[in-house]
Amino acid sequence: MSGHASPGSFTGTSPVWLKTPDDVNALVPELWSATAEKTDGVLTVGGVAVPDLVANVNTPAYVLDEADFRERARAFRDAFTGYDVYYAGKAFLCTEVARWVQQEGLSLDVCSDGELSVALRAEVDPARIGYHGNNKTPMELRRAIALGVGRIIIDSFDEVERIASIAAETGMTARVMVRVTAGVEAHTHEYIATAHEDQKFGFSISSGDAFEAVRRLLAAPNVDLRGLHSHIGSQIFDSSGFEVAARRVLALQARIRDELSTELPELDLGGGFGIAYTTQDDPSTPKALAEELTAIVEHECRGFGLAVPHLSIEPGRAIVGPSMCTVYTVGTVKEVALDGGVSRTYVSVDGGMSDNIRTALYDADYSATLAGRTSSAGPVLGRVVGKHCEAGDIVVKHEFLPGDIAPGDLIAVPGTGAYGRSMASNYNHALRPPVVAVRDGESRVLVRRETEADLFATDLG
Ligand code: LLP
Protein backbone atom coordinates (compact mmCIF):
# COMPACT_ATOMS: atom_id res chain seq x y z
CA MET A 1 0.00 0.00 0.00
CA SER A 2 1.03 3.56 -0.24
CA GLY A 3 1.45 6.48 2.04
CA HIS A 4 0.13 9.48 3.88
CA ALA A 5 2.40 12.35 4.92
CA SER A 6 2.71 12.64 8.68
CA PRO A 7 -0.02 15.04 9.77
CA GLY A 8 0.24 17.94 12.12
CA SER A 9 3.39 19.75 11.03
CA PHE A 10 2.79 23.37 10.16
CA THR A 11 4.74 26.24 8.73
CA GLY A 12 3.09 29.31 10.21
CA THR A 13 -0.57 29.01 9.27
CA SER A 14 -0.65 26.14 6.81
CA PRO A 15 0.40 22.51 6.94
CA VAL A 16 3.72 21.59 5.33
CA TRP A 17 2.11 19.37 2.71
CA LEU A 18 0.16 22.29 1.26
CA LYS A 19 2.34 23.81 -1.43
CA THR A 20 1.65 27.17 -3.01
CA PRO A 21 0.30 26.23 -6.47
CA ASP A 22 2.01 27.41 -9.65
CA ASP A 23 -1.44 27.88 -11.16
CA VAL A 24 -4.27 28.35 -8.69
CA ASN A 25 -6.80 27.49 -11.43
CA ALA A 26 -5.35 24.06 -12.18
CA LEU A 27 -6.97 20.81 -11.04
CA VAL A 28 -4.82 18.22 -9.30
CA PRO A 29 -6.03 15.21 -11.33
CA GLU A 30 -5.31 12.64 -8.58
CA LEU A 31 -7.99 14.23 -6.40
CA TRP A 32 -10.75 14.28 -9.00
CA SER A 33 -12.98 11.76 -10.73
CA ALA A 34 -11.73 10.52 -14.09
CA THR A 35 -13.83 12.76 -16.33
CA ALA A 36 -13.29 16.00 -14.40
CA GLU A 37 -11.50 18.72 -16.32
CA LYS A 38 -11.32 22.46 -16.54
CA THR A 39 -11.68 24.54 -19.67
CA ASP A 40 -11.10 28.26 -19.27
CA GLY A 41 -11.66 27.83 -15.57
CA VAL A 42 -15.01 26.06 -15.98
CA LEU A 43 -15.16 22.68 -14.26
CA THR A 44 -16.74 19.93 -16.34
CA VAL A 45 -17.62 16.50 -14.96
CA GLY A 46 -19.06 13.71 -17.08
CA GLY A 47 -19.16 16.14 -19.98
CA VAL A 48 -21.46 18.50 -18.05
CA ALA A 49 -20.27 22.03 -17.24
CA VAL A 50 -20.81 22.58 -13.54
CA PRO A 51 -22.25 26.12 -13.96
CA ASP A 52 -24.90 24.68 -16.33
CA LEU A 53 -25.66 21.89 -13.91
CA VAL A 54 -26.19 24.19 -10.94
CA ALA A 55 -28.29 26.53 -13.09
CA ASN A 56 -30.77 23.63 -13.03
CA VAL A 57 -30.38 22.14 -9.57
CA ASN A 58 -28.88 25.00 -7.56
CA THR A 59 -26.17 24.63 -4.89
CA PRO A 60 -24.98 22.96 -2.79
CA ALA A 61 -25.07 19.81 -4.92
CA TYR A 62 -23.20 16.53 -4.97
CA VAL A 63 -22.08 15.68 -8.49
CA LEU A 64 -21.56 11.97 -9.10
CA ASP A 65 -19.41 10.89 -12.04
CA GLU A 66 -21.15 7.69 -13.12
CA ALA A 67 -18.40 6.45 -15.43
CA ASP A 68 -15.83 6.97 -12.69
CA PHE A 69 -17.92 5.09 -10.11
CA ARG A 70 -18.47 2.18 -12.46
CA GLU A 71 -14.82 2.12 -13.44
CA ARG A 72 -13.65 2.00 -9.82
CA ALA A 73 -16.16 -0.76 -9.06
CA ARG A 74 -14.91 -2.74 -12.06
CA ALA A 75 -11.29 -2.11 -11.11
CA PHE A 76 -11.88 -3.75 -7.72
CA ARG A 77 -13.87 -6.59 -9.26
CA ASP A 78 -11.22 -7.29 -11.89
CA ALA A 79 -8.19 -6.88 -9.62
CA PHE A 80 -9.62 -9.07 -6.87
CA THR A 81 -10.21 -12.10 -9.06
CA GLY A 82 -11.61 -15.04 -7.17
CA TYR A 83 -12.82 -12.74 -4.38
CA ASP A 84 -16.32 -11.48 -3.71
CA VAL A 85 -16.21 -7.69 -3.66
CA TYR A 86 -18.92 -6.16 -1.49
CA TYR A 87 -19.49 -2.45 -2.04
CA ALA A 88 -19.96 -0.91 1.43
CA GLY A 89 -23.23 0.96 1.02
CA LYS A 90 -22.71 3.01 4.16
CA ALA A 91 -20.27 5.16 2.17
CA PHE A 92 -23.10 6.21 -0.13
CA LEU A 93 -26.22 4.39 -1.22
CA CYS A 94 -29.29 5.21 -3.25
CA THR A 95 -31.45 2.98 -5.41
CA GLU A 96 -29.69 3.74 -8.69
CA VAL A 97 -26.21 3.29 -7.21
CA ALA A 98 -27.28 -0.08 -5.79
CA ARG A 99 -28.25 -1.01 -9.38
CA TRP A 100 -24.85 0.07 -10.69
CA VAL A 101 -23.17 -2.05 -8.04
CA GLN A 102 -25.13 -5.08 -9.12
CA GLN A 103 -24.63 -4.36 -12.84
CA GLU A 104 -20.88 -4.16 -12.35
CA GLY A 105 -20.85 -7.57 -10.72
CA LEU A 106 -20.27 -6.53 -7.12
CA SER A 107 -22.08 -7.68 -4.02
CA LEU A 108 -23.45 -5.24 -1.46
CA ASP A 109 -22.70 -4.69 2.20
CA VAL A 110 -25.51 -3.06 4.19
CA CYS A 111 -25.49 -2.19 7.86
CA SER A 112 -29.06 -1.22 8.61
CA ASP A 113 -32.63 -2.06 7.81
CA GLY A 114 -32.86 1.11 5.74
CA GLU A 115 -29.88 0.20 3.58
CA LEU A 116 -31.32 -3.28 3.16
CA SER A 117 -34.58 -1.75 1.94
CA VAL A 118 -32.73 0.35 -0.64
CA ALA A 119 -30.94 -2.76 -1.86
CA LEU A 120 -34.24 -4.63 -2.23
CA ARG A 121 -35.81 -1.66 -4.00
CA ALA A 122 -32.95 -1.89 -6.51
CA GLU A 123 -33.65 -5.63 -6.81
CA VAL A 124 -30.23 -6.62 -5.56
CA ASP A 125 -30.17 -10.39 -5.12
CA PRO A 126 -30.44 -10.98 -1.33
CA ALA A 127 -27.93 -13.82 -1.66
CA ARG A 128 -25.35 -11.18 -2.61
CA ILE A 129 -26.00 -8.98 0.41
CA GLY A 130 -23.90 -8.94 3.57
CA TYR A 131 -25.61 -7.54 6.66
CA HIS A 132 -23.52 -5.79 9.32
CA GLY A 133 -24.26 -4.04 12.59
CA ASN A 134 -23.35 -4.34 16.24
CA ASN A 135 -26.94 -4.02 17.42
CA LYS A 136 -29.31 -5.60 14.95
CA THR A 137 -32.72 -6.12 16.48
CA PRO A 138 -34.44 -9.52 16.51
CA MET A 139 -36.89 -8.11 13.97
CA GLU A 140 -34.07 -7.06 11.65
CA LEU A 141 -32.44 -10.47 11.97
CA ARG A 142 -35.73 -12.21 11.24
CA ARG A 143 -36.21 -10.11 8.13
CA ALA A 144 -32.67 -10.83 6.90
CA ILE A 145 -33.05 -14.57 7.43
CA ALA A 146 -36.48 -14.66 5.80
CA LEU A 147 -35.11 -12.81 2.77
CA GLY A 148 -32.21 -15.24 2.41
CA VAL A 149 -29.54 -12.58 2.94
CA GLY A 150 -26.24 -14.09 1.83
CA ARG A 151 -24.48 -13.56 5.10
CA ILE A 152 -25.21 -11.90 8.39
CA ILE A 153 -22.11 -10.74 10.22
CA ILE A 154 -22.44 -11.66 13.87
CA ASP A 155 -21.05 -9.14 16.33
CA SER A 156 -21.93 -10.21 19.90
CA PHE A 157 -22.95 -13.15 22.10
CA ASP A 158 -26.43 -11.63 22.33
CA GLU A 159 -26.61 -11.86 18.58
CA VAL A 160 -25.35 -15.46 18.60
CA GLU A 161 -28.30 -16.32 20.84
CA ARG A 162 -30.77 -14.33 18.77
CA ILE A 163 -29.69 -15.83 15.49
CA ALA A 164 -29.62 -19.36 16.90
CA SER A 165 -33.09 -19.06 18.33
CA ILE A 166 -34.60 -17.51 15.18
CA ALA A 167 -32.99 -20.19 12.99
CA ALA A 168 -34.17 -22.97 15.31
CA GLU A 169 -37.66 -21.58 15.58
CA THR A 170 -38.25 -20.80 11.90
CA GLY A 171 -36.34 -23.74 10.49
CA MET A 172 -34.73 -21.36 8.02
CA THR A 173 -30.99 -21.39 7.46
CA ALA A 174 -29.02 -18.39 8.70
CA ARG A 175 -25.77 -17.93 6.79
CA VAL A 176 -23.40 -16.04 9.05
CA MET A 177 -19.86 -14.83 9.59
CA VAL A 178 -18.20 -13.93 12.86
CA ARG A 179 -16.69 -10.48 13.12
CA VAL A 180 -13.45 -10.61 15.03
CA THR A 181 -11.17 -7.91 16.39
CA ALA A 182 -7.55 -8.70 15.81
CA GLY A 183 -6.13 -6.18 18.28
CA VAL A 184 -4.52 -4.07 15.56
CA GLU A 185 -3.92 -0.37 16.07
CA ALA A 186 -4.73 0.92 12.57
CA HIS A 187 -3.03 4.16 11.65
CA THR A 188 -6.10 6.24 11.14
CA HIS A 189 -8.40 8.52 13.13
CA GLU A 190 -9.45 6.91 16.42
CA TYR A 191 -13.16 7.09 15.53
CA ILE A 192 -12.69 5.09 12.33
CA ALA A 193 -10.26 2.46 13.62
CA THR A 194 -12.11 -0.76 14.46
CA ALA A 195 -9.77 -3.62 15.24
CA HIS A 196 -8.23 -2.47 18.51
CA GLU A 197 -9.69 -4.10 21.60
CA ASP A 198 -11.31 -1.19 23.41
CA GLN A 199 -14.28 -0.48 21.10
CA LYS A 200 -17.72 -1.81 20.38
CA PHE A 201 -17.26 -4.02 17.31
CA GLY A 202 -16.64 -7.71 17.02
CA PHE A 203 -15.31 -10.51 19.20
CA SER A 204 -11.80 -10.25 20.57
CA ILE A 205 -9.48 -12.98 19.36
CA SER A 206 -7.04 -12.64 22.23
CA SER A 207 -9.67 -13.01 24.98
CA GLY A 208 -11.01 -16.22 23.43
CA ASP A 209 -14.43 -14.69 22.76
CA ALA A 210 -14.09 -15.11 19.01
CA PHE A 211 -13.34 -18.82 19.39
CA GLU A 212 -16.26 -19.23 21.77
CA ALA A 213 -18.64 -17.47 19.36
CA VAL A 214 -17.54 -19.83 16.59
CA ARG A 215 -17.99 -22.84 18.85
CA ARG A 216 -21.54 -21.84 19.76
CA LEU A 217 -22.51 -21.04 16.17
CA LEU A 218 -21.13 -24.34 14.87
CA ALA A 219 -23.28 -26.14 17.41
CA ALA A 220 -26.47 -24.22 16.55
CA PRO A 221 -29.04 -25.93 14.31
CA ASN A 222 -29.85 -24.21 10.97
CA VAL A 223 -26.86 -21.89 11.30
CA ASP A 224 -24.39 -22.06 8.44
CA LEU A 225 -21.17 -20.43 9.65
CA ARG A 226 -19.30 -19.35 6.53
CA GLY A 227 -16.21 -17.82 8.07
CA LEU A 228 -14.45 -15.07 9.95
CA HIS A 229 -14.64 -11.36 9.21
CA SER A 230 -12.04 -8.75 10.08
CA HIS A 231 -12.34 -5.03 9.29
CA ILE A 232 -9.51 -3.05 10.82
CA GLY A 233 -10.61 0.50 10.09
CA SER A 234 -10.96 3.12 7.41
CA GLN A 235 -8.78 5.42 5.29
CA ILE A 236 -5.82 3.10 5.77
CA PHE A 237 -2.73 3.30 3.55
CA ASP A 238 -0.37 0.93 5.24
CA SER A 239 -0.70 -2.83 4.70
CA SER A 240 1.09 -3.73 7.92
CA GLY A 241 -2.22 -3.56 9.80
CA PHE A 242 -3.80 -6.04 7.38
CA GLU A 243 -0.78 -8.29 7.72
CA VAL A 244 -0.91 -8.46 11.51
CA ALA A 245 -4.69 -8.89 11.42
CA ALA A 246 -4.48 -11.70 8.83
CA ARG A 247 -1.92 -13.55 10.93
CA ARG A 248 -4.09 -13.40 14.05
CA VAL A 249 -7.30 -14.24 12.22
CA LEU A 250 -5.72 -17.21 10.47
CA ALA A 251 -4.22 -18.39 13.75
CA LEU A 252 -7.80 -18.48 15.02
CA GLN A 253 -8.85 -20.32 11.84
CA ALA A 254 -6.16 -22.92 12.60
CA ARG A 255 -7.31 -23.26 16.21
CA ILE A 256 -10.88 -23.81 15.01
CA ARG A 257 -9.63 -26.52 12.66
CA ASP A 258 -7.59 -28.19 15.41
CA GLU A 259 -10.10 -28.01 18.25
CA LEU A 260 -13.45 -28.01 16.46
CA SER A 261 -12.50 -30.05 13.39
CA THR A 262 -13.87 -27.42 11.02
CA GLU A 263 -12.00 -25.45 8.41
CA LEU A 264 -14.23 -22.43 7.80
CA PRO A 265 -14.57 -21.95 4.04
CA GLU A 266 -14.57 -18.15 3.81
CA LEU A 267 -12.70 -15.11 5.11
CA ASP A 268 -13.61 -11.44 4.74
CA LEU A 269 -10.83 -8.88 5.05
CA GLY A 270 -13.15 -5.86 5.34
CA GLY A 271 -12.72 -2.51 3.64
CA GLY A 272 -10.94 0.66 4.63
CA PHE A 273 -8.67 1.32 1.65
CA GLY A 274 -7.54 4.95 1.66
CA ILE A 275 -8.13 7.57 -1.02
CA ALA A 276 -6.48 10.89 -1.85
CA TYR A 277 -8.33 13.82 -0.30
CA THR A 278 -5.33 16.10 -0.71
CA THR A 279 -1.83 15.90 -2.18
CA GLN A 280 -0.53 14.42 1.08
CA ASP A 281 -2.32 11.11 0.35
CA ASP A 282 -0.87 8.55 -2.03
CA PRO A 283 -3.27 5.60 -2.27
CA SER A 284 -2.61 2.21 -3.86
CA THR A 285 -4.36 0.89 -6.91
CA PRO A 286 -6.85 -1.98 -6.54
CA LYS A 287 -4.38 -4.17 -8.44
CA ALA A 288 -1.55 -3.46 -5.99
CA LEU A 289 -3.91 -3.96 -3.05
CA ALA A 290 -5.12 -7.27 -4.43
CA GLU A 291 -1.59 -8.53 -4.90
CA GLU A 292 -0.54 -7.46 -1.43
CA LEU A 293 -3.56 -8.84 0.40
CA THR A 294 -3.55 -12.10 -1.50
CA ALA A 295 0.16 -12.59 -0.85
CA ILE A 296 -0.34 -11.88 2.86
CA VAL A 297 -3.19 -14.39 3.18
CA GLU A 298 -1.45 -17.07 1.12
CA HIS A 299 1.73 -16.67 3.16
CA GLU A 300 -0.10 -16.94 6.49
CA CYS A 301 -2.19 -19.91 5.30
CA ARG A 302 0.98 -21.74 4.28
CA GLY A 303 2.41 -21.08 7.72
CA PHE A 304 -0.61 -22.63 9.42
CA GLY A 305 -1.06 -25.42 6.88
CA LEU A 306 -4.49 -24.08 5.98
CA ALA A 307 -6.23 -24.06 2.61
CA VAL A 308 -6.71 -20.49 1.38
CA PRO A 309 -10.35 -19.70 2.17
CA HIS A 310 -12.68 -18.03 -0.32
CA LEU A 311 -11.88 -14.35 0.20
CA SER A 312 -13.96 -11.20 0.16
CA ILE A 313 -13.43 -7.49 0.73
CA GLU A 314 -15.75 -4.55 1.41
CA PRO A 315 -14.51 -1.30 -0.08
CA GLY A 316 -16.79 1.72 0.19
CA ARG A 317 -14.77 4.90 0.19
CA ALA A 318 -12.27 3.70 -2.44
CA ILE A 319 -15.12 3.26 -4.93
CA VAL A 320 -17.47 6.17 -4.32
CA GLY A 321 -15.19 8.67 -2.56
CA PRO A 322 -13.36 10.07 -5.58
CA SER A 323 -16.43 9.73 -7.82
CA MET A 324 -18.24 12.68 -6.27
CA CYS A 325 -17.53 16.33 -5.70
CA THR A 326 -19.63 18.93 -3.93
CA VAL A 327 -20.37 22.25 -5.58
CA TYR A 328 -21.12 25.31 -3.47
CA THR A 329 -21.79 28.99 -4.07
CA VAL A 330 -19.62 31.47 -2.19
CA GLY A 331 -21.70 33.78 0.00
CA THR A 332 -19.31 35.93 2.00
CA VAL A 333 -15.56 36.39 2.00
CA LYS A 334 -13.70 37.65 5.05
CA GLU A 335 -10.01 38.23 5.50
CA VAL A 336 -8.93 37.51 9.05
CA ALA A 337 -5.59 38.79 10.31
CA LEU A 338 -3.48 36.18 12.07
CA ASP A 339 -0.37 36.58 14.20
CA GLY A 340 2.82 37.44 12.35
CA GLY A 341 1.31 39.80 9.80
CA VAL A 342 -0.33 37.03 7.77
CA SER A 343 -4.00 36.53 7.09
CA ARG A 344 -6.47 33.81 6.23
CA THR A 345 -9.34 34.28 3.81
CA TYR A 346 -12.54 32.75 5.17
CA VAL A 347 -14.78 31.77 2.29
CA SER A 348 -18.32 31.00 3.44
CA VAL A 349 -20.39 28.69 1.29
CA ASP A 350 -24.07 27.74 1.20
CA GLY A 351 -23.59 24.35 2.86
CA GLY A 352 -21.14 23.10 5.47
CA MET A 353 -21.11 20.54 8.25
CA SER A 354 -24.65 19.45 7.33
CA ASP A 355 -23.44 18.11 3.97
CA ASN A 356 -19.89 17.19 5.02
CA ILE A 357 -19.36 16.41 8.69
CA ARG A 358 -16.00 14.71 8.11
CA THR A 359 -13.85 17.79 8.64
CA ALA A 360 -15.47 18.54 11.99
CA LEU A 361 -15.71 14.92 13.09
CA TYR A 362 -12.38 13.47 11.99
CA ASP A 363 -10.30 16.58 11.40
CA ALA A 364 -10.30 15.49 7.75
CA ASP A 365 -8.51 17.43 5.03
CA TYR A 366 -10.08 18.35 1.71
CA SER A 367 -9.18 20.56 -1.21
CA ALA A 368 -11.20 23.02 -3.28
CA THR A 369 -11.11 24.84 -6.57
CA LEU A 370 -12.93 27.65 -8.28
CA ALA A 371 -15.45 25.96 -10.59
CA GLY A 372 -17.04 28.64 -12.76
CA ARG A 373 -14.33 30.94 -14.08
CA THR A 374 -10.63 31.40 -14.40
CA SER A 375 -8.75 33.88 -12.24
CA SER A 376 -5.61 35.83 -12.88
CA ALA A 377 -5.23 36.77 -9.21
CA GLY A 378 -2.47 35.21 -7.15
CA PRO A 379 -3.22 32.50 -4.56
CA VAL A 380 -4.25 33.36 -1.01
CA LEU A 381 -4.43 30.99 1.91
CA GLY A 382 -8.10 30.19 2.29
CA ARG A 383 -10.45 28.25 4.52
CA VAL A 384 -13.81 27.13 3.22
CA VAL A 385 -16.45 27.31 5.93
CA GLY A 386 -20.15 26.56 6.04
CA LYS A 387 -23.17 28.59 7.08
CA HIS A 388 -23.96 26.82 10.34
CA CYS A 389 -23.89 28.38 13.78
CA GLU A 390 -20.70 26.72 14.85
CA ALA A 391 -17.04 27.76 14.63
CA GLY A 392 -16.05 24.18 13.80
CA ASP A 393 -18.25 24.29 10.72
CA ILE A 394 -15.31 23.95 8.33
CA VAL A 395 -15.37 22.19 4.97
CA VAL A 396 -11.79 22.71 3.82
CA LYS A 397 -9.30 23.69 6.49
CA HIS A 398 -6.44 24.75 4.25
CA GLU A 399 -6.40 25.57 0.57
CA PHE A 400 -4.90 28.14 -1.72
CA LEU A 401 -7.66 29.96 -3.55
CA PRO A 402 -7.52 32.86 -6.03
CA GLY A 403 -7.15 36.20 -4.26
CA ASP A 404 -10.16 37.64 -6.09
CA ILE A 405 -12.60 34.95 -4.90
CA ALA A 406 -15.91 36.70 -4.38
CA PRO A 407 -19.57 36.21 -3.49
CA GLY A 408 -21.35 34.36 -6.28
CA ASP A 409 -18.33 32.29 -7.28
CA LEU A 410 -18.78 28.55 -7.54
CA ILE A 411 -16.32 26.34 -5.76
CA ALA A 412 -16.05 22.57 -5.89
CA VAL A 413 -14.63 20.17 -3.32
CA PRO A 414 -13.47 16.79 -4.68
CA GLY A 415 -13.52 13.44 -2.91
CA THR A 416 -16.83 13.94 -1.09
CA GLY A 417 -18.56 10.79 -2.33
CA ALA A 418 -17.92 8.66 0.73
CA TYR A 419 -19.61 9.54 4.00
CA GLY A 420 -20.69 12.95 2.68
CA ARG A 421 -24.33 12.61 1.68
CA SER A 422 -24.60 9.43 3.76
CA MET A 423 -23.69 11.30 6.97
CA ALA A 424 -25.47 14.53 6.02
CA SER A 425 -27.87 16.04 8.54
CA ASN A 426 -30.59 18.65 8.82
CA TYR A 427 -28.59 20.64 11.37
CA ASN A 428 -30.00 24.17 11.60
CA HIS A 429 -32.86 22.82 9.47
CA ALA A 430 -30.57 22.66 6.45
CA LEU A 431 -32.13 20.94 3.46
CA ARG A 432 -29.88 18.11 2.34
CA PRO A 433 -28.47 18.62 -1.16
CA PRO A 434 -29.28 16.53 -4.22
CA VAL A 435 -27.06 13.89 -5.77
CA VAL A 436 -26.81 14.48 -9.48
CA ALA A 437 -25.27 11.82 -11.70
CA VAL A 438 -23.42 13.03 -14.78
CA ARG A 439 -22.40 10.96 -17.79
CA ASP A 440 -21.67 11.63 -21.46
CA GLY A 441 -22.88 15.21 -21.27
CA GLU A 442 -26.15 14.34 -19.51
CA SER A 443 -27.13 14.94 -15.90
CA ARG A 444 -29.73 13.06 -13.90
CA VAL A 445 -30.94 13.78 -10.37
CA LEU A 446 -30.67 10.51 -8.41
CA VAL A 447 -31.58 12.00 -5.03
CA ARG A 448 -33.48 15.26 -5.09
CA ARG A 449 -32.83 18.23 -2.85
CA GLU A 450 -34.92 18.20 0.30
CA THR A 451 -37.66 20.75 0.61
CA GLU A 452 -39.26 22.49 3.54
CA ALA A 453 -42.15 20.08 3.06
CA ASP A 454 -39.74 17.23 3.83
CA LEU A 455 -38.83 18.93 7.11
CA PHE A 456 -42.45 19.57 8.00
CA ALA A 457 -43.42 16.00 7.09
CA THR A 458 -42.08 14.83 10.43
CA ASP A 459 -42.76 17.97 12.51
CA LEU A 460 -46.41 17.45 13.30
CA GLY A 461 -46.99 21.06 14.25
N1 LLP B 1 -16.73 -3.04 6.14
C1 LLP B 1 -17.07 -2.74 7.40
C2 LLP B 1 -17.39 -3.80 8.33
C3 LLP B 1 -17.10 -1.41 7.82
O1 LLP B 1 -17.41 -1.13 9.07
C4 LLP B 1 -16.78 -0.39 6.90
C5 LLP B 1 -16.79 1.00 7.32
C6 LLP B 1 -16.45 -0.74 5.59
C7 LLP B 1 -16.43 -2.08 5.24
C8 LLP B 1 -16.12 0.27 4.53
O2 LLP B 1 -15.03 1.04 4.85
P1 LLP B 1 -14.39 1.99 3.72
O3 LLP B 1 -13.83 1.12 2.64
O4 LLP B 1 -15.50 2.84 3.19
O5 LLP B 1 -13.39 2.79 4.44
N2 LLP B 1 -17.62 7.61 8.50
C9 LLP B 1 -16.18 7.35 8.47
C10 LLP B 1 -15.88 5.96 8.08
C11 LLP B 1 -16.58 4.95 8.94
C12 LLP B 1 -16.52 3.64 8.30
C13 LLP B 1 -17.38 2.65 8.99
N3 LLP B 1 -17.22 1.36 8.47
C14 LLP B 1 -15.52 8.35 7.53
O6 LLP B 1 -16.21 9.22 7.03
O7 LLP B 1 -14.32 8.29 7.34
From TrEMBL:
Enzyme Commission code(s) on record: 4.1.1.20
Cited PROSITE patterns: ODR_DC_2_1, ODR_DC_2_2
Cofactor annotation: pyridoxal 5'-phosphate
Domain Orn/DAP/Arg decarboxylase 2 N-terminal: start-end pairs: 67-320
Residues annotated for substrate binding in this entry: R317, R358, Y362, E390, Y419
Transmembrane segment boundaries: none
Binding site for pyridoxal 5'-phosphate: G272, E314, P315, G316, R317, Y419
Enzyme class name: lyase
Keyword rRNA processing: no
Keyword Isomerase: no
Reactions accelerated catalytically: meso-2,6-diaminopimelate + H(+) = L-lysine + CO2
Listed pathway(s): Amino-acid biosynthesis; L-lysine biosynthesis via DAP pathway; L-lysine from DL-2,6-diaminopimelate: step 1/1
Residues found modified as N6-(pyridoxal phosphate)lysine: K90
Keywords of this entry: Amino-acid biosynthesis, Decarboxylase, Lyase, Lysine biosynthesis, Pyridoxal phosphate
Superkingdom: Bacteria
Subunit structure and binding partners: Homodimer.
UniProt-listed PANTHER family: DIAMINOPIMELATE DECARBOXYLASE (PTHR43727), GROUP IV DECARBOXYLASE (PTHR43727:SF2)
Job description of the protein: Specifically catalyzes the decarboxylation of meso-diaminopimelate (meso-DAP) to L-lysine.
Annotated family: Belongs to the Orn/Lys/Arg decarboxylase class-II family. LysA subfamily.
Identification of the protein by name: Diaminopimelate decarboxylase
Source species: Nocardioides luteus
